[in-house]
Design brief:
Elements (H helix, E strand, L loop, with lengths): L5 H52 L6 H12 L4 E7 L5 E6 L2 H7 L8 E8 L22 E8 L1 H51 L15 H88 L5 H31 L8 E4 H10 L2 H6 L3 E6 L6 E4 L1 H17 L5 E11 L3 E10 L33 H11 L3 E7 L3 E12 L2 H4 L13 E5 L3 H12 L4 E5 L2 H8 L8 E6 L5 H11 L7 E6 L12 E3 L2 E6 L5 H15 L25 E5 L3 H13 L3 E5 L2 H10 L4 E5 L7 H10 L8 E5 L6 H8 L3 E4 L4 H11 L8 H4 L1
Parallel strand pairs: 6-8, 12-13, 12-14, 14-15, 15-17, 18-19, 18-20, 20-21, 21-22
Antiparallel strand pairs: 1-2, 1-4, 3-4, 5-7, 7-11, 8-9, 9-11, 10-11, 16-17
Helix pairs in contact: 1-4, 4-5, 5-6, 5-16, 6-10, 7-9, 9-10, 13-14, 17-18
Length: about 800
């Protein structure tokens, strides 16, 4: 922009007012001068026409020639253009005007219309009259004749030109004075600003001295300059102070760096010590696991062997107490070791397919004896729409359920414990479900909720507390749920019960991943069922189990409702009647009479739930009138109820019932797959060797023993074994080193080697595979684990070599 700079703005502010005043002054002076000229011409014209009228009034001669000469006399004047005398009748008596040549000579460029007319009346005998353009004066009465004179405007034109020239001259002079004032004003104003700008430039460049010279006018800008100079002095002092502090700071920084180097060296040493301590801790966990599990292996193993001998009832009771105590001790040990692994960051989750429903049933049924002993109603309610095939760490999910149910049974003295599993959401690949454990126990106060999931912390720590425990169960549950990406929370009303709910999201086991061996789900059937029980929670759980086969159930809360239901016309097909012997025992006694009262006999089955004889062998199926009856223990689960439905449907269809005895677990000595196996047992603990030898001999295997790893290597060099059971921690030579030597050469290079170990670190599996270990059995070793291991690996030694066949 033209006037964007400060000097241009200052010049404009000084120039415009001066030029404006000059323009106003010149315009006013020109106007006054031009008006004076116009007034002078008007006065001359009026004077001439009046003088001519007076001259004509006093002349007695009225000749036309005389009038003409008089008019010519007026034309002799330079500014008179036309003279005319009119009579009374309006006719022009005499009219004389300047010729064109005279006009050109005298007033070049003048036009006829460029004139001013004046007229005056003539008193007397003159017969002339004019209509004046300008009235001669106020109060005049027109006479019988008129005189008209036209004056030239040329003087006005000349005056206007002169006024215009003078005005332009004044404007030029005003502009000159304005420029001079703008220049002087700019110099006067900008000079202090320039000094301030130079001062600021010096400050920006870090030049705080020498001090700048101050102005002498004492104006605001000089005060500003003095203020900036004061700032410059202050900055100079601060810079000196900062430089001094910088030097001090640099010295302190050098000292700090030296201290940091020392600290880093100390931290590095501490880190190495921490790593060494972590390694020591890991080794300690492994050693403790080995040292504790090894004697527990002997205790639990010989308890199982002792239970197979003939004992009195008292001895059996003592043996059951020993077994329960040993298992409880193993539970505490497992909790401590699991928590230690989680805290050490050495805990890993497996991703394996598992059956959720089977896992939940196995976990809940562990506490059925305890619930029965406390007269509690233990119920497992699984939503029928929940998929069973999932992928995840099934044993850890079972551990979560076991801890929650264990606490619920422990802190509940009367009422019920319900495990409710519901489907929250599902996609094509994932399933989100919730596991809620509800009880009617003592509950907890709201202020104690934050302490529930803390390790080694219990709400009741008084010496008179009724319920024991390590305080690790819920802490482990929370860690496991969080590692699986889920959530766990608890709600309670003190004295009324509590609810613990865990929400998990796992991958769905697709049909292509399930394999050909997956069990096919039978198609839905059309079969009615009557549930005679007062426990609505149990009825809902049993209804969900029956819904897996499409069976529609109706609830009968007393005998009268059961009688009313049986009096209805029978539906086609068999009828299932389920009676809860705990809440409605009278229904069993009244049932024969109710059945006899029907006009048509009832075809179907009877399912008795609970009762003292439910857990005894031989109750898999018996006749109850025309009904095929079964009796199962509480809580009812799908693996016991669904076979009843299948057997009932098969009987109704005319298919022979399956042999109930075939579903029992075969005895160890009747396992044909283990007969004649040659097994090497390497363990430094004599009790463990004796226990394992007894188990293996009952399975029909031939056993050789080795007390250490070196002895195991020597035996493998001279014998060809079917399976080698190798303890990991042994003197002379540990199990991994012995395995490497066996794999290096000899007849047992390809023999399956199974580790007997109590180590639980996640890196062990990789180390075992790298050393040549094929599988592992965690101590304490049970008879079932040995059977499964020998069946898995022992039979492979008798299979033909595919390379030989090729």
């Amino acid at each position: 922009m033209i006037f964007s700079g400060l000097p241009a703005r200052i010049a404009l502010l000084a120039f415009v007012p001066v030029l404006g005043l000059a323009a106003l002054a010149s315009a006013w002076l020109g106007y006054e001068r031009y008006q004076a000229g116009v007034q002078e011409i008007n006065t001359r014209g009026t004077t001439l026409v009046r003088q001519a009228a007076l001259a004509l009034e006093g002349d007695p001669v009225l000749e036309r020639e005389r009038l003409r000469r008089y008019a010519l006399g007026l034309l002799a004047l330079d500014d008179v253009l036309t003279v005319s005398i009119d009579g009374l009748d309006g006719q022009t008596l005499v009219r004389e005007q300047r010729s064109s040549s005279q006009r050109l000579n005298g007033n070049a460029g003048e036009q006829p219309e460029a004139s001013l007319g004046f007229e005056a009346p003539v008193r007397g005998a003159l017969a002339a009259s004019l209509t004046p353009d300008i009235s001669p004066g106020p109060g005049y009465l027109p006479g019988p004749a008129r005189v008209h004179i036209e004056l030239s405007r040329a003087p006005l034109f000349a005056l206007r030109s002169s006024v215009l020239i003078d005005t332009l001259g004044l404007l030029g002079l005003g502009a000159l004075f304005g420029l001079l004032a703008a220049s002087l004003g700019s110099i006067a104003i900008l000079t202090p600003f320039e000094r301030v700008q130079r001062l600021l430039n010096r400050l920006r460049n870090g030049q705080f001295e020498p001090p700048l010279r101050r102005g002498d006018d004492g104006g605001p800008l000089d005060a500003l300059e003095e203020g900036i100079s004061a700032i410059a002095r202050l900055l100079r002092e601060q810079r000196q102070t900062l430089m001094s502090r910088d030097e001090q700071t640099m010295a302190e920084l050098h000292e700090t760096l030296e201290e940091l180097e020392i600290k880093n060296a100390e931290l590095d040493i501490a880190r190495k010590k921490a790593l060494a301590a972590s390694q020591v801790k890991s080794e300690f966990l492994a050693n403790m696991s080995h040292e504790i599990r090894t004697p527990m292996n002997g205790v639990l193993g010989f308890v199982e062997l002792l239970a197979k001998t003939e004992l009195s009832r008292t001895q059996q009771g003592h043996l059951q107490t020993i077994r329960a105590s040993a298992r409880h001790l193993m539970t505490i040990l497992n909790d401590i070791l699991d928590f230690s692994k989680i805290e050490a960051g050495k805990f890993e989750l497996a991703q394996q397919p598992f059956d959720l429903r089977e896992l939940l049933e196995n976990a809940v049924l562990l506490f059925a004896p305890n619930a029965h002993a406390k007269n509690l109603s233990l119920v497992l309610d699984v939503a029928p729409e929940l998929p069973s095939g999932l992928i995840g760490d099934g044993p850890r999910i079972a551990q979560i359920v076991t801890n929650l149910v264990s606490n619920a049974v422990k802190f509940t003295d009367r009422g019920q414990v319900e495990v409710c599993v519901r489907l929250c959401s599902e996609t094509a690949k994932t399933v989100t479900f919730g596991i809620a454990v509800l009880d009617t126990g003592i509950g907890f106060a709201p202020q104690d909720r934050a302490r529930l999931f803390s390790a080694f912390d219990q709400i009741d720590t008084s010496p008179t507390r009724r319920h024991g425990g390590t305080g690790l169960g819920l802490a482990i549950c929370r860690r496991l749920v969080q590692m699986m990406g889920g959530d766990i929370h608890a709600e309670s009303v003190p004295g009324e019960g509590a609810c613990f709910e865990a929400t998990l999201r796992l991958d769905r086991l697709l049909a292509t991943e399930a394999g050909e061996g997956a069990e096919a789900v039978p198609p839905p059937v059309s079969m009615p069922a009557l549930l005679a029980m007062r426990d609505e929670t149990l009825a809902r759980a049993l209804t969900h189990i029956l819904a897996l086969r499409g069976v529609a159930a109706s609830l009968c809360r007393d005998v009268n409702e059961l009688e009313a239901a049986l009096s209805q016309p029978p539906a086609p097909g068999p009828l299932l009647i389920a009676i809860d012997l705990r809440t409605l025992p009278g229904a069993r006694q009244a049932l024969p009479e109710l059945l006899r009262a029907r006009e048509q006999p009832v075809e179907g089955g009877l399912l008795l739930i609970g009762g003292a004889e439910a857990a005894m062998p031989g109750n898999g199926g018996f006749a109850y009138g025309r009904l095929q009856a079964w009796q199962i223990a509480r809580p009812p689960v799908s693996r016991e109820v669904l076979p009843v439905l299948d057997a009932l449907l098969a009987r109704h269809a005319g298919t022979p019932l399956p042999d109930q005895a075939s579903t029992t677990v075969p005895a160890a000595h009747s396992t044909p797959g283990t007969q004649g196996l040659h097994v090497l047992l390497a363990d430094d603990n004599l009790i463990n060797r004796q226990l394992a030898r007894l188990f293996l001999q009952q399975l029909g295997a031939q056993v050789d023993e080795a007390a250490n790893g070196l002895e195991a290597v020597q035996r493998c060099a001279g014998h060809d074994y079917d399976v080698v059971l190798m303890d990991i921690q042994m003197p002379e030579l540990d199990g991994l080193s012995a395995t490497r030597r066996i794999r290096a050469a000899g007849p047992n290079r390809d023999t399956p080697i199974v580790a007997l170990t109590a180590e639980i670190l996640p890196s062990d599996a990789g180390r075992y595979r790298a050393a040549g270990i094929d599988d592992q059995v965690i101590k304490p070793v049970t008879e079932e684990a040995l059977v499964a291991t020998l069946l898995k690996w022992g039979n492979r030694c008798h299979l033909p070599d595919p390379q030989v066949q090729a």
